[in-house]
UniProtKB/TrEMBL annotation:
<dbReference type="Pfam" id="PF24437">
    <property type="entry name" value="INTS7_HB"/>
</dbReference>
<dbReference type="InterPro" id="IPR011989">
    <property type="entry name" value="ARM-like"/>
</dbReference>
<keyword id="KW-0963">Cytoplasm</keyword>
<feature type="domain" description="Integrator complex subunit 7 helical bundle">
    <location>
        <begin position="538"/>
        <end position="718"/>
    </location>
</feature>
<dbReference type="InterPro" id="IPR033060">
    <property type="entry name" value="INTS7"/>
</dbReference>
<dbReference type="GO" id="GO:0034472">
    <property type="term" value="P:snRNA 3'-end processing"/>
</dbReference>
<dbReference type="InterPro" id="IPR016024">
    <property type="entry name" value="ARM-type_fold"/>
</dbReference>
<protein>
    <submittedName>
        <fullName>Integrator complex subunit 7 isoform X1</fullName>
    </submittedName>
</protein>
<dbReference type="InterPro" id="IPR056517">
    <property type="entry name" value="INTS7_HB"/>
</dbReference>
<feature type="domain" description="Integrator complex subunit 7 N-terminal">
    <location>
        <begin position="25"/>
        <end position="536"/>
    </location>
</feature>
<keyword id="KW-0539">Nucleus</keyword>
<dbReference type="Pfam" id="PF24436">
    <property type="entry name" value="INTS7_N"/>
</dbReference>
<dbReference type="InterPro" id="IPR056516">
    <property type="entry name" value="INTS7_N"/>
</dbReference>
<dbReference type="GO" id="GO:0005737">
    <property type="term" value="C:cytoplasm"/>
</dbReference>
<comment type="similarity">
    <text>Belongs to the Integrator subunit 7 family.</text>
</comment>
<dbReference type="GO" id="GO:0032039">
    <property type="term" value="C:integrator complex"/>
</dbReference>
Length: 727
């Protein structure tokens, strides 16, 4: 039901004409004021698309106030539509400016005589809990509705209580006793108790509240031994412990106890699921005894599904500090070799298991132990890990099913980690990958290429050794136009770019371009060009962008590709920069700026009203100004040679009282450079602030540019304040 409604809301508005924000809102408002129920509903369900396209606080505030009016005066079906829109647009609720007015209009329905209307209102309030966590009238209404005789209203009150408990400490503290009474009350049906128990997971705001909730859950586990009750109570128990970080070791012991002693499969699966959650969230709380008990359960169980679940927990723990605690020797204890420990024994048994998932987790445990523990006798363990990875690689590379590919991803991730932590094993790992690359399925080849690229990025010295095999393979692949073959062309080209370390030979360029001309489509060539730009092979990228200029049907795409071609040429010019060669540096920067100015003109021409490319244009303009600032700084530094301080510099200092005049005119020029870099840093900061919808990697790049400009301005300022060093 929920997924169906979500897809319905997501698809609503498909095909509507592109409008600006105000026009789109007015169009929807016209639908809301229509006298036909169908048109009103259609207008309501199109609001999420409006929010996604125009996520501006003023528009969102106006839109939600209009929806609140519909909620107040409409029928229950319209209210339900508004509720779904609110839940789908939860991330935009914090942008509502008139929260009081919005809540007032919604809350007025709580006094209705219709229990369904009250139930929808309660769910609406619960969905808004993040912006109204301390509204006492909402708290009071939820408490009242928990005592209602209408099941629909009670379930809605439970939903609202859970949401408010997660947000409000006061509400959680006030509702905890009432929830406890209802759960323990004999008049409360069991199915209602099962719905009430999960609210207790939110009683984590302080230690006393968490302790009282934990005591209640402890009583419920022993008092109600039915499967459903045990599962719900145990899971709530775990979520409470993970949220409050209270008594987590006790919770781990309790789950291990149920895993070991409870005969019910559903309870065991729930225990494994919760142990995995705690392993991810609090691995430092796992003691050696906890890990040992889990290993013993995994060694004793005859069921592969249970063994797989326990191994997934152990593989998670093996990548954290818990594995070091497991192998650490307590004072006064006797040393235990890694070969004889149960976890190593379990991993060695499982790494050749006929179940691929079990084998993958077994190899992952061995890899993490070999990478994390620095004992001297790990050579046999390393060999076991490499042999297990190679066997998994051979097995999974011949099957393109989703499950097998997931297993292959685990194996390849382990290979990258092992090559990084144990560099002496990297050569054999790379040879295994290159050997298997020739006979593997295309889906597996793509993943293996990603693995080779990651290893080559970590250990560039291995790049030259793998380049020959990669080129031989590149010549014979791509004989069909299937999606996998095209994806493989991109992946192999990426590995070649990484292995070449920014210096592609003419032979490599010829092979790549010839292959692209024979079998690739324009999109594949574009993706390879982007990878070339990303890996610093700007010359290759420029040639590929040039070849694509005549293959697009839109002039906007033409100008976009032309701008990328010019930017690639500009960056290629900068690769000729050499240390202490200032004359060539100025010529390289000048040539680069020439291409950048051509590129920004094309990029501006590529923009449209619906796609203005404002971030791209702003970033490139900052790049141009940054290069000009560097050029000016180099000229300023050279001026110390061409225009040294005058012979009367000391007299000028004594007359003016400014010690900076001792250095001559360069001091003023350096001040100008300092201000220029400081202004650039401020502009990068403005771009960072305005790019609220950019991804984290892009924002990090902008932030690094800003910090770099600030560092340069501080360095120039320090140089100005120390005239002796400037001379």
């Amino acid at each position: 039901m929920a997924s169906a409604s979500k897809s319905f809301l997501a698809d609503a508005g498909y095909g509507e004409q592109e409008l600006d924000a105000n026009s789109a809102l007015m169009e929807l408002d016209k639908g809301l004021r229509s006298g036909k129920l169908g048109e009103q509903c259609e207008a309501v369900v199109r609001f999420p698309r409006l929010f996604q396209k125009y996520p501006f606080p003023i528009l969102i505030n106006s839109a939600f106030l209009k929806l609140a009016d519909v909620f107040r005066v409409g029928n229950n079906f319209l209210r339900l539509c508004v509720l779904k829109v609110t839940q789908q647009s939860e991330k935009h609720l914090e942008k509502i400016l008139n929260v009081d007015e919005f809540v007032k209009r919604v809350f007025s329905v709580i006094h209705s005589n219709d229990p369904v209307a009250r139930a929808i209102t309660l769910r609406m309030l619960g969905s808004m809990a993040s912006i109204i966590p301390e509204r006492k009238n909402a708290h009071h209404s939820i408490r009242q509705s928990l005592d209602s005789h209408d099941n629909v209203e009670v379930e809605a009150a439970i939903f609202a209580a859970a949401n408010f408990s997660a947000q409000s400490k006061d509400f959680a503290g006030g509702i905890c006793n009432k929830i406890s009474e209802m759960i323990q009350g004999l008049a409360t049906p069991v199915d209602l108790k099962l719905k009430l128990i999960p609210i207790l997971q939110h009683m984590h705001h302080d230690a006393s509240l968490a302790s009282s909730a934990r005591q209640l859950l402890q009583q419920l586990v022993t008092s109600y031994p039915s499967t459903k009750m045990v599962i719900v109570t145990l899971h709530t128990f775990t979520l409470l412990a993970a949220s409050s970080l209270v008594d987590i070791p006790k919770q781990i012991q309790l789950l291990l106890q149920y895993l070991k002693n409870d005969p019910r499969e559903a309870v065991k699966r729930l225990a494994i699921q919760d142990l995995k959650l705690l392993a991810n969230k609090t691995p430092h709380t796992w003691s050696r005894d906890n890990i040992q008990a889990l290993c013993e359960c995994a060694l004793q169980t005859p069921y592969d599904s249970m063994k797989l679940g326990m191994l997934s927990v152990l593989s998670t723990l093996s990548g954290t500090i818990a594995i070091k605690q497991y192998f650490s020797i307590a004072p006064g204890a006797t040393a235990t070799t890694t070969r004889s420990s149960d976890i190593v024994k379990l991993a060695q048994e499982c790494c050749y298991h006929n179940n691929q998932g079990i084998a993958a987790h077994g190899v992952r445990v061995l890899t993490n132990i070999a990478a994390s523990c620095q004992e001297k006798d790990l050579l046999p363990l390393e060999q076991d890990a490499v042999f297990g990875l190679e066997s998994l690689l051979v097995l999974c590379s011949q099957d393109s099913s989703p499950g097998t590919q997931a297993t292959l991803k685990i194996a390849l991730t382990c290979m990258v980690k092992l090559a990084k932590c144990r560099p002496h094993l990297s050569q054999s790992i790379v040879e295994s990958l290159l050997t298997q690359l020739h006979s593997a399925q295309d889906a597996a080849r793509i993943l293996m290429c990603h693995c080779l690229a990651a290893i080559a990025m970590q250990l560039p010295v291995l790049g030259d050794g793998m380049l020959g095999d990669l080129m031989d393979l590149y010549k014979v692949i791509g004989r069909s136009a299937s999606d996998k073959q095209q994806e493989l062309l991109v992946s192999l080209a990426t590995v070649i770019f990484v292995a070449s370390q920014k210096t592609l030979s003419s032979e490599v360029k010829t092979v790549i371009k010839q292959q692209l001309e024979n079998v690739s489509n324009g999109w594949t060539a574009y993706r390879i060009a982007r990878q070339a730009s990303r890996m610093g092979n700007h010359g290759m990228a420029r040639e590929l962008y040039q070849s694509l200029l005549t293959q697009v049907a839109s002039e906007h795409f033409y100008f976009w590709l032309n701008s990328l071609k010019e930017f690639s040429h500009a960056e290629q010019c900068l690769t000729g920069l050499q240390k202490d060669d200032y004359s060539s540096a100025l010529s390289c920067i000048a040539e680069s700026l020439k291409s950048y100015h051509k590129g920004i003109a094309s990029l501006t021409a590529a923009s449209t009203p619906l796609n203005p490319l404002s971030f791209q244009c702003g970033f490139v303009k900052l790049r141009i100004d940054l290069l000009q600032a560097f050029s000016q700084l180099i000229c300023t530094c050279n001026s110390l040679k061409t225009s040294p301080p005058p012979a009367i510099a000391t007299t000028i200092v004594m007359t003016s009282g400014s010690d900076l005049q001792r250095c001559g005119r360069i001091s003023n020029q350096m001040k100008l450079s300092m201000e220029e870099f400081r202004n650039l840093a401020a502009r990068y900061g403005d771009l960072y602030q305005s790019s609220f919808d950019a991804d984290s990697a892009t924002l990090r790049n902008v932030e690094l540019q800003q910090q770099g400009c600030l560092l340069i301005s501080h360095a120039i300022e320090a140089l100005i304040l120390d005239p002796e060093s400037a001379r």
